[in-house]
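Subject: sequence -> structure tokens, single chain

Hey, anyone have a minute? Need the predicted structure for the following. Not urgent.
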Amino acid sequence: MDTTVYVPTDRTGAQPDRDRTTPDVPAARARTLSKVYGAGGSAVRALDAVDVDFAAGAFTAIMGPSGSGKSTLMHLLAGLDTATSGSAYLGTTETTRLGDAELTRLRRDRIGFVFQSFNLLPMFTAEQNILLPLELAGSRVDAEVREWFDTLVTTLGLGGRLTHRPAELSGGQQQRVAIARALIARPEVVFADEPTGNLDSRAGAEVLSFLRRSVRELGRTVIMVTHDPTAAAYADRVVLLADGRIAGDIVDPTPESVLAGLDALRSLEAPVQGTPQRDGVTR
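Reply:
Had a minute. Here:
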């Protein structure tokens, strides 16, 4: 296990020893991606010329101090927000060049979402909620889809809960339904935004284990934003952000190495605040 605490990255955030075995095209990537809110003296640069790759078939966590730009990065990669400049890609598709209708189709057909709030429809059963993306897309639930549905239900331990409505499920069970819903259309990437934020520690651990299993056993790609070092330790890799820039990587993270990495960022920023360098570390 690599317990490296803090590793400054190149402009792409690449890790040569690991990336050789991944597909040539990352599942998602950003190139000089920037986001500025407001204008003039009140402008806030939430993301500052970020270059980073996210490997296919991997579980990657994005972490950083409050205001570091981690949620902004995820929203731009997922086509939920518009960039001020730069490019974001899903596979070979430059999402920052797509119009509203094209983005809607891309999010429906190629991306899955898991949010802190479960966003289940209260009048639908667990099974109906899981199948909802296919219904909205007008897709037929054929034998192949039913086989994939059964695989998800078995993997996520939902077999005895399919006829239950959200109010009849625990928080952990509702989030598992949300994960199955995110995976049912076999998306290229699942974006998870603080997926354990509303769960207790036991339910959160179960959800994180299922996300990891979806990568290792079902071949999915998961990109997760979290503030929790324990949650980040379930990932294969942690990308650190500071002041809207890529600040480092942790490979095969542990809760201790993630905490140490965040502490290293804070200590590097402390001596001379306000002089960020191009690698995203304030020195």
